[in-house]
Amino acid sequence: MYALIVLAWVNNYYFAVILLKNVLVILVLLIAAVIKNAIYIVRLL
Q: Which parts of the chain span the membrane according to its record (predicted)?
C-alpha cells in the first residue's frame, strides 16, 4: 500500500514537472512573439 502511494506521488511529481516545463516553453514563445511584434510595430511608426 505504501509503495503504491509513493509510486502515485512520484508519477504526479513527474507529471507536474512536465506540465510546468510545457507552460514555461509556451510563456517564452509568447513573450518572444510579443517582442517581435513590438519591434515590428515600432519600425512602422
A: 12-35
Q: Give buried/exposed letters for 27-45 (b at 16+ CB in 10 A, else e).
A: eeeeeeeeeeeeeeeeeee
User: What is the 8-class DSSP label of residue 17?
Assistant: H
Q: What mean pLDDT, rounded, does the chain reach?
A: 92
User: What is the DSSP code (8-state) at residue 24?
Assistant: H
Q: What is the pLDDT of residues 21-37, one digit of tens each?
A: 999 999 999 999 999 99
pLDDT band at 45 (very low <50, low <70, confident <90, very high): confident
